[in-house]
Amino acid sequence: MAPPYLCQVSTRVSCGACCGLYNISNLAPGHLEALLTGRVEAFARIPRVAEAIEDFGRQQLGWTPVERPFPQFHHCPYVGLIGAKQTRVGCLLHPEVPGNQGRDWRELSYYGAKACQTYLCPTTERLPVGYREILRAGFDHWYLYGHAITEYRLWSAFFEELEQRIGRRVSRADFDQGSRARDHLQHFAALKLSWPFRRADAPGPCHFFFDDALYPRPGVERGDPALPDSPFETIFQELESCFREEAELRRAEAAVARIIEALVATVRI
């Protein structure tokens, strides 16, 4: 059986992180959705010839000197909303997009067709297949899913902590029993969007997930070097945390523990 595919999951759940979807300065959901909607409408009006498509890309937010969380990482001007009702993110150059008439225009993207057709993010190899199945089933919208799915270190630490507490491996069935487990999973993922203990110099929710050491994540920053390591140290590092005093560290631990404990109670039912 093929491993679970993470890029396009359902009519509402998909990921465009490797296209640099989140590598823009304003990541408010409404702003990003409006940007993508406008891009789809503009793309629908252009003729499908190389010159027009390339000109469209230059007019969009693309590989230009703009303020991005990761300046050496692309934001593809051809990522937009796709599907019958435009309810998930995907590539406007894909042959199945209306107007392309079966023609694959992805060779006009910055990285070229081969990268778009063959690249898979590190999560597909580094995160155990059971965890990937849970995450595929655990979200109902592309925005939060795309922010979360590339965080394989974060999810590995999270699921391992959960399994240690319940004394067994978790499976997708634990999250198919009802909405409560999925809700807790999404609450944990949402910590990434509004983590109050994020370092001042952190890029925000956008994540550079490639394993090429271009933008490595530093360890947890501590205002007081005497602050101890936390049982959630990996989680806090992946959330790009800074703790100035012990009270902040304990509040952060409590926030994570509440979600994990709620999940423990749910999956044991």
Secondary structure elements and pairings:
Elements: H1 29-44, H2 50-59, E1 79-82, E2 88-91, H3 112-118, H4 123-126, H5 129-137, H6 142-149, H7 152-166, H8 172-176, H9 179-194, E3 221-222, H10 233-238, E4 242-243, H11 246-267
Parallel strand pairs: 3-4
Antiparallel strand pairs: 1-2
Helix pairs in contact: 6-9, 7-11, 9-11
Any overview of this molecule?
The two termini are 30 Å apart. This protein has helices at 29-44, 50-59, 112-118, 123-126, 129-137, 142-149, 152-166, 172-176, 179-194, 233-238, 246-267, and strands at residues 79-82, 88-91, 221-222, 242-243. It is mainly alpha-helical and 269 residues long. The model has no long low-confidence stretch (mean pLDDT 92). The protein has a two-stranded antiparallel ribbon with strand order 1-2. A two-stranded parallel sheet has the order 3-4. It contains eleven helices and four strands, in the order H-H-E-E-H-H-H-H-H-H-H-E-H-E-H. Helix 6 (142-149) packs across helix 9. It has two domains: 17-120, no CATH class; 124-267, no CATH class.
Question: Outline of this structure?
Answer:
It contains 11 helices and 4 strands. It has 269 residues and is mainly alpha-helical.
Indicate the radius of gyration in whole angstroms: 20 Å
Number of strands: 4
Number of helices: 11
Number of domains: 2
What ranges have pLDDT less than 50 throughout 5 or more consecutive residues?
none
User: How is the biggest beta sheet arranged?
Assistant: 2 strands, antiparallel
Q: Write the H/E string, N to C.
A: HHEEHHHHHHHEHEH
Mean pLDDT level: 92
* Morphology call: globular
Distance between the termini: 30 Å
What is the percentage of strand-forming residues?
Answer: under 5%
